[in-house]
From TrEMBL:
Transmembrane parts of this sequence: 44-63, 83-100, 107-126
Keyword rRNA-binding: no
Reactions the enzyme catalyzes: ATP + protein L-histidine = ADP + protein N-phospho-L-histidine
Entry EC number(s): 2.7.13.3
InterPro entries the UniProt entry points to: HATPase_C_sf, HATPase_dom, Sensor_HK_TwoCompSys, Sig_transdc_His_kin_sub3_dim/P
GO molecular function, a single term: kinase activity
Alphabetical list of CDD domains matching this protein: HATPase_UhpB-NarQ-NarX-like
Residue span(s) of domain Signal transduction histidine kinase subgroup 3 dimerisation and phosphoacceptor: 185-251
Protein name as it appears in the record: histidine kinase
Keywords per UniProt: ATP-binding, Kinase, Membrane, Nucleotide-binding, Phosphoprotein, Transferase, Transmembrane, Transmembrane helix, Two-component regulatory system
Domain Histidine kinase/HSP90-like ATPase positions: 301-397
Amino acid sequence: MSRTSTTSTTQGRVDHLVDAALFVFCASAMAVETTVSEKAVTTPAAYVAVVLASAPVLLWRRWPLLAGVLTMTLMFGVLETTHLYQTIAFPAVVCGYGLALRLGRRVALPAGVVTMALVLVILAIYSPHSLWGWDTVRNLGFVAVPLALGVAGHERRLASAALLERAESAERTREEETLRRVGEERLRIARDVHDVVAHAMVAINVQAGVGAHLLDRDPEQARATLRDIKKVSGDALGDLRSMLGLLRQQDDEPGAPVVPTQGLREIDDLREGLASAGVDLDLSIDASADLLPAAVGSTGYRIVQEALTNVMRHVGPTSARVRVTRDDDGIAQVVRIEVEDDGVTEPRTGTLAGTLVGAGSGNGLRGMRERAAAVGGSLEAGPRAGGGWRVSATLPIGAP
């Protein structure tokens, strides 16, 4: 059994005990007054009427409206069988409070008006006192005060429930926001690791194949290829150490030294690795690229890096062109990035036929689109009409 159900069961037992105690109290009070009052009539019917008039107290939690109607109705039986004036209102007080507590002011107000009118009728018929006196005010107070207290309790319950609901909603929102941020961070890390590792591994794979092909025919060129592999792998390891350092860093630790964020100007650093893989790169970057926001520059660099990695992976030795321009599309300033290749220009024969990585998993193209969308841009990729492949990205910079 859960803790909630156990608590509910315990509370239900306590409520039943309280109601039973109220029933005993009301019946005992009226029975005592019947016994000691000189004006009361002590007959078996009187005591039965007293017990019946107290019974609605047992119903006020489950059927508050029914309990209120019964207690006012059975009051006439008490008045007819015995003359009680002090304790006869006790069951009505309990049931009136319960009705207002359970149903609120929308039911309590009309119930109060009807009950007060009925009290005036009872006083006019059965009371030995004048209708325009303190006795009438006191009996009307027995109606108004319990209803007012019940309405106050009902409103307090609603306010507490609303406050609890807001707190739970805020907690759910915080949890959802935390999960969303964790998901975004995992996606960002996955993209960064893919960009660094995929580019390095493709370059190493291609260069290793070239080195193996040239080992007997041109040992000096093979050694140069091995040096390129060493440099590419070293740069990749440095980038990975930087990422792992950020992931391991605690909130209270000073920032770990990291490699500066690459921008579009660093695309030229890719030329050497591409050349060793047989890719001739023609690079043209707008002079205003240095003034781009860091997020846009880094996104552009990663898109170009992945596009050129795909050239090495899927095409092999070829020519590629990268064009970076800054433009105004009438709504905002944008930077346009185009990466094109000429497709396969040499047949893949012999040892070189096995140097390409293969078809790939498709994460690179998806990652490029996600990066462009993250800064509010768009990306298109597809085959060129004259052969080869073309990647075009548009990244917004700001208002013109």
